[in-house]
């Protein structure tokens, strides 16, 4: 069947397409690097015509022009399911709000009609001969919010890689209301994060835990990147991938022959993910590559799905941990930094996995604005800090001073294990606080 006539019928100038949006609408943007700056800029031109338009996205990597055009938030109210650095800066200026989300539950928000978009604005690859537009590098919530949207508008961009699934990696022209041909901006490149010597020490401890045939999940940040770099240079064999985020280090591991997926129990030989962010090295690797399979997040991050693979290693960062074992990964006190994301999903899922380990990794200290050394392992979390992983669910904790498994440990055993991971100069003070908190006994010994 020839879909060219339908394509032409639905093709509009961007200014005409944006007229679909009315005051009071909920507008769903794309996700991660599949956010359309082209559609956003066109919508921003209508700032004085609209009021109370709610915009939702997932980790938009740039500050939207709709937001910058409306610093008093009379016209556009911007919300993010998982904060990017750009969203974090907007949040500091009271120009962005977070939508709390346990990541694997996101699609159910739309299935259960808790939220429905009036208009979905997404970026896609050019239509293929079968009438499908590939959704590119981000699939986590996109199929579900397109299902429930009153109107779906796609921006065609020739630089979007064709990411194979999986499931629901494309949208058919029959499901699209309007088509806009954009400016074909190149895919957004993520800057390479500097890896510190401390990151390398933590990564080396993590590497000692990983076995042949392990199935990897890496979170965002320099330390997980350091783990990936070390794995690429190791002699590990037949590693698998089941992750939420695919980054450049997975390409390095695959090309070094470390990743085959042959020992996976589910999606054998496939690198499973729900979104990808990185550089052109990653995007070129993904383009038409049958070794990779993109899925919606209610598959990739479902703890019961995660647990069906053996030896799942979930490797994630944190901001701070208290002596009870509570993990704060999304705020520093009341300052919002990030979202829950998939950290909780993969800590739970790794525990269900035979031989799995969910690892919360963090440097033991940081230097505050006054130049003082502060511990990231604290007696209690900073007031206002949001708990990302409850103490009952936390599994392993890693700093540059070692690794501790917290399951089945009492409060005093946890305190001892965590203080052993703190900076040596700060341990005595932590012991004093643990005594005040009644989570210390005389038999405790600190290495």
Task: Describe, in short, the structure shown.
The protein is of the alpha/beta class and 447 residues long.
What key attributes describe this structure?
Glutaconate Coenzyme A-transferase; alpha/beta; 16 helices; 7-stranded parallel β-sheet; 2 domains; 447 residues; 8-stranded mixed β-sheet
Verbal overview:
The chain has 447 residues and is α/β, with parallel strands linked by helices. It contains 16 helices and 26 strands. 27% of the residues lie in helices and 21% in strands. It has an 8-stranded mixed β-sheet with strand order 15-13-11-10-16-21-25-26. It has a 7-stranded parallel β-sheet with strand order 4-3-2-1-5-7-9, sandwiched between helices.
The computed structural class is alpha/beta
Unreliable segments of 5+ consecutive residues: none
Calculate Rg over CA atoms.
23 Å
In CATH terms, what is the fold-level topology of the largest domain?
Glutaconate Coenzyme A-transferase
User: Which percent bin holds the helix content?
Assistant: 25-40%
The strands making up the biggest β-sheet line up spatially as 15-13-11-10-16-21-25-26
Number-wise, the strands total 26
- Give the CATH level 1 class of the largest domain: Alpha Beta
Query: Which term fits the overall shape?
Result: globular
Summed up, the helix count is: 16
Strand content: 15-25%
What is the averaged pLDDT score? Answer: 96
Count of the domains: 2
CATH architecture of the largest domain: 3-Layer(aba) Sandwich
The CATH superfamily name of the largest domain is Acetyl-CoA hydrolase/transferase C-terminal domain
Give a short account of the largest sheet.
Answer: 8 strands, mixed
User: What separation lies between the terminal Cα atoms?
Assistant: 72 Å
